[in-house]
Design a protein that fits this description.
about 40% helix, about 325 residues, Rossmann fold, alpha/beta, 13 strands, 6-stranded parallel sheet, elongated
Length: about 325
């Protein structure tokens, strides 16, 4: 990306920070950065969960803490430059989300404490141990490969006649390949033909589906910031194509058929607690990476009716949320 584009984005990101972040504090406040892989609008609820968690711990921007936000607007290749900007600003803690942003921050700094909300941190090389991460990184994690396999299992349990399934993923996300590798033996065991459907931009989804529509019967969406942020686009398009589908929770809430995953807002609230501990003197490498333990299921009966599908009663009984 050209230098002018980088400077333009940095300037725009600064303008999007809360107004209190521009105040010059009369005393040194802890400075916390947030490296956003997407945009403020698309990640508003996640940021709100983080800020709410910080407020509960007594942190108010401009009064007891100083917040800095920079956003890559979906351009993952820009993340290293933005991470370097936080190094220049000498933030006390840097919050990241997703594997691309976390790896970018890790590559830039070995000293800034990093609190990451991320996929599998071991398989992607973020840390070598969950219990003893060492270095300057801690956070809250989900094990994305296992989660994707579970979605495939749920889909085939609900609709055992399915034989051709496409996996929707963002090839620019380093977690994608480990997820796909984990799904291959699972698909073989379930006697399902697995097709890859890489999507880098939300507006490419409809065209990509049209190319494989005759070869697949169902979709499994994996966790990626861009995919999650555009859940409505993907959910609506999958249903319009009359495809059985499963993805993250928001996918089912926005028009997809099934959703299975973790509550990401809760993960950002937990990240606030880790930020607090680091500000109070804890070393991130001494803080075990927390693992998401609560998984939820969403069933969209409205979508099922439109597709002419009957959801098995056993699956409905397991659902945490049913949309009628």
């Amino acid at each position: 990306m050209r230098r002018r584009e980088v400077l333009t984005l940095l300037t725009a990101a600064a303008a999007l920070r809360p107004s209190t972040a521009r105040l010059q504090p009369t005393r040194k406040l802890p400075r916390v950065g947030f490296l956003g892989a997407l945009s403020p609008a698309l990640y508003a609820s996640q940021v709100a969960a983080l800020l709410s968690g910080l407020r509960e711990l007594g942190y108010i921007d401009g009064t007891t803490i100083h917040l800095e936000f920079l956003w890559a607007e979906g351009h993952y290749d820009l993340l290293p430059q933005l991470a370097a900007e936080f190094e220049r600003l000498q933030v006390d803690v840097l919050v990241t989300h997703g594997t691309p942003g976390t790896l970018a921050a890790k590559a830039v700094s070995k000293t800034i404490p990093i609190v990451a909300v991320m996929g599998d941190p071991v398989i992607t090389g973020v840390v070598t141990s969950i219990a003893q991460p060492g270095g300057n990184i801690t956070g809250v994690a989900i094990f994305s490969p296992e989660l994707a396999v579970k979605r495939l299992e749920i889909l085939t349990q609900a609709f055992p006649l399915l034989k051709r399934v496409a996996v929707v993923f963002n090839p620019d996300n380093p977690i994608a390949e480990p997820i796909l590798r984990a799904m291959v033996p699972a698909a073989t065991s379930l006697r399902v033909d697995l097709h890859r459907l890489p999507i880098r931009e939300p507006n490419a989804f409809a065209d990509a589906l049209s190319l494989v529509a005759e070869n697949v019967e169902a979709l499994v969406l994996v966790d990626d910031g861009m995919l999650i942020a555009n859940a409505q686009e993907f959910g609506g398009t999958a249903s319009a194509r009359r495809l059985t589908s499963i993805g993250f929770l928001e996918f089912a809430r926005r028009g997809g058929l099934l959703g299975y995953g973790v509550n990401f807002l809760g993960m950002f609230s937990r990240a606030a607690i880790l930020v607090d501990r680091i500000i109070k003197g804890a070393k991130p490498g001494d803080l075990p990476i927390e693992q998401a333990t609560k998984f939820e299921m969403v069933v969209n009966l409205r979508t099922a009716k439109g597709l002419g599908l009957t959801i098995p009663p056993a699956l409905l009984a397991r659902a945490d949320e049913v949309i009628e």
